[in-house]
Known about the structure:
By secondary structure, the protein is an alpha+beta fold. 42% of the residues lie in helices and 33% in strands. The chain has helices at residues 20-24, 40-45, 54-67, 73-82; strands spanning 3-16, 27-37, 69-70. A 3-stranded mixed β-sheet has the order 2-1-3. The protein is elongated.
Amino acid sequence: MSDRIELRGLRVMATCGVLPEEKARRQPFEIDMDVHADLGVASLSDDLSDTIDYGALCSLVAGIADAQDFDLLERFAGRLAEA
C-alpha cells in the first residue's frame, strides 16, 4: 500500500505551445501533483531523508519548466512525471 503526498498550486513560468506567440514568451502554469510513495518509515523516524522533500520536489519542477521548452502540454506533464 502506498501513501500520497499532494502538491497543489505550484506556479511556474514555462514555454509551452506550438503557435509562434506561445513560443515567443513564457506563460504561467499552475501545477498540481500527486506523489505516491511508501511513507511508513518516515512516519516512525520523523527524518526528512525518509520522505519526499517538498522543497526539492518544487525545485525539480521549477527547474524543468525553466530549462526546457515544450510544444505539447501533454509532453510537459509527461516530463514532470518522468522526473
